[in-house]
Amino acid sequence: MSQPAEDRSFPLPSQIAPVPGAEGWEAMYPYFSRFQPEDDQRFWFYNSMHFPEVVPAFDGITSEIPYTAIGANTARLFSFPTTMGIDYRIVNGRVYITANPVTDPAQVEERLGHFQERAGHYYANWDSLYAGWQQRIEALIADIEAVEVPELGELDDLSVVTEARGFASNHFLRERFHRCIDLYSKMWHHHTEFLMLGYGAYVVFFEFCKQAFPEMGDQMVARMVAGIDVTMYRPDDELKKLARLAVENDVADLFVEGSDPVKVLAALGERGEGGARWLAALEEAKDPWFNVSVGDGFYHHHLSWADDLTVPFAALPRYVEQVRAGEDLTRPTERLAQERDRIAGEYRALLGSEEEQAAFDQMLGVCRMVFPYVEAHKFYCEHWFTTRFFQKIRAFGTLLARRGVLAEADDVFHLRHVEVEDALADVMLAWASGSTELGARHWQPIVAERKRIVEALSGWSPPPALGAVPEALNDPAVKMLWGITQETVETWLGSEEDDQSTVRGYAASPGVVEGVARVLLNVNDIGQIREGEVLVCPVTAPSWGPVFGKIAAAVSDIGGTMSHAAIVAREYGMPAVVGTGSATARIRTGDRVRVDGDRGVVTVLG
To answer: In the record, which residues are listed under signal peptide (predicted)?
Structure first.
């Protein structure tokens, strides 16, 4: 039996030892992202869901801006009663976060009044407001796609003079780089505009069910909102269409396990009209549906399907075989919907009064209403927009490399965004004066040093949490998305005393299977997954949906009942255990494991 959480604690932030060879890592991130002495008094957990790897310098913006937006919506716009925003810190290249709870009853009551008015407006007008959101986010995507990095030639175009534009093209370097950063910030504000309200609705319904039905598992509550199709599944649907087209056009033999996408594309080009039709369909599907990152949109090197075809081509062989065999490729949405309604009906009937049943109906209705947004926004925000954002920043890197400031385009991601602006100013000045940029001798040694630091930091194993365990963990996103509850913390604290052959987490999706483990610490290695294996990873991304068809089960270190890994696993009818905290550390590739998605237990069999 594990000791009570209050008798034990995690390492304090101040106790984290330096990583040999990574001295000076702090310069890669802004001062406000570093742990302060007073942070020892707070509870922090490692956000391996969004940041499973060391964060390069530029990519630090993907924690700074999202938490700016999440907190603003939670604390300042909608006035969530029991929580403010989320603070983040970076140590040894890893992102830790903590929610700021509101514990004073008077303040909770005051904030509740504002929340009911403000959030109530959104809940009451959800469909029309959501339609407006859709227009805004599509306009933002069009804006980021329209950003162009100027070409700085020997002379500006004559039209600049004849049209009396009044400013030269070097002005656009700073303006358009700012434009990218500003659009990214605005996207994240829109991203969280509805999201926290969605998680808030889940939490209210979960707490009602927990009180009314103490024996009910979290998974059972989540299954009452399953079986709803959302935009995030569309890329996978496009792959299934391509699989059918491959069979219809007699090119199915080219799609085999482990094949190289480049070689397959070349072979298709030699297969006449059938190959040409398939290639044309591929190009049509790419925009926008291949703008999905193999990660979750927080690292520049987690490329999209459009940039790297490894993930879609890893899924196509199975889909092609299923089409050949006449199997149904659709997700079991209808079965899940029937099960959803059956479960809800059975629990509703157990409630003792019409008032309770009416409350149940109202809360469940809100959860089902918000569910499509909670998943669909990811395609537009973390994937489509963010793919374009990183492509534009890479284009600025190409300019800096062409001007000799950087050795190669991707080196731009080893500079903080404020440093990129300095490097661009160097180019603006040199072009204006007819001189040579001075950045090579300044930036290239810094980039080389930071690459070495990132490599050194990648070998560090971050603790799942830091600091003292709080009395209350009541932020809706922390609970529903990351799965951080008192029970989770207990599991983490007691893991060293557990049977080493057993890993415990959330029962995310039902079913029990056995299989050989495939541990993936790097999302870019997803093409290694083979048929029937059990995927073990820090966290899964929604864009991994296509490979869910080939694995037997999924196990993740982090994630809650409504995390994307849990939702996708349920929609694909596949067992899953999430929020284990330590699965990737305690399971090895090749281990035979049993995944019990009903109880949230993974057992290493040998």
So the answer is: none
State the DSSP code for 304. Answer: B
CB 430, CB 403: distance < 8 Å: yes
Structure confidence at residue 61 as a pLDDT band (50, 70, 90): very high
Q: What is the dihedral of CA 397, 401, 405, 408, to 10 degrees?
A: 90
43: helix, strand or coil: coil
Q: Which contiguous run of DSSP H or E holds residue 593?
A: strand 592-596
Distance CA 213, CA 137 (A): 39
Q: What are the residues whose beta carbons fall under 8 Å from the beta carbon of 532, sequence distance 6 or more? A: 515, 516, 550, 551, 552
| CA terminus-to-terminus distance, the chain | 24
Q: Which residues on neighbouring strands pair with residue 594, listed in sequence order?
A: 514, 603
| Sequence-ordered strand ranges (E) for 404-473 | 465-466
- As beta bridge partners, residue 502 has 603
Domains parsed from the chain with CATH numbers: 231-330 (no CATH), 499-604 (3.50.30.10)
Give dist(CA 182, CA 61) in Å, integer.
12
Q: Which residue has the tokens 């999201």?
A: 195
pLDDT band at 431 (very low <50, low <70, confident <90, very high): very high
User: Collapsing DSSP states into helix, strand and coil, what is residue 18?
Assistant: coil
Those residues whose C-beta lies under 8 Å from the C-beta of residue 514, and which sit 6 or more positions away, are 552, 592, 593, 594, 595, 605
Cβ atoms within 10 Å of 496's Cβ, excluding its own: 10
Q: Please provide the size of the chain in residues.
A: 606
Distance CA 57, CA 73 (A): 26
Q: What is the DSSP string of 380-392?
A: IIIIIIHHHHHHH
CA angle 52, 58, 59 (to 5 degrees): 25
**Tens digit of pLDDT for each residue in 283-339?**
999 999 999 988 889 999 999 999 999 888 988 998 999 999 999 888 778 888 888
What string of H, E and C letters represents the secondary structure of 314-382? HHHHHHHHHHHCCCCCCCCHHHHHHHHHHHHHHHHHHCCCHHHHHHHHHHHHHHHHHHHHHHHHHHHHH
* Helices (H), ranges, 213-231: 218-223
Most distant CA pair in the chain, distance: 82
Q: 9, exposed or middle or buried, with CB in 10 Å at 0-12, 13-18, 19+?
A: middle
Tokens of 513: 């299977």
Tokens matching residue 327: 């199997």
Token code pair at residue 573: 């009818």
Among 476, 226, 215, smallest CA distance to 347 is for 215
Give 199-202's long-range contacts (Cβ < 8 A, gap of 24+). 199/374, 199/476, 199/477, 199/479, 199/480, 199/481, 199/562, 200/80, 200/119, 200/476, 201/123, 201/363, 201/366, 201/367, 201/369, 201/370, 202/367, 202/370, 202/476, 202/480, 202/562
pLDDT 10s digits, 510-538: 899 999 999 988 776 777 888 899 999 88
Average of per-residue pLDDT values in the chain: 89
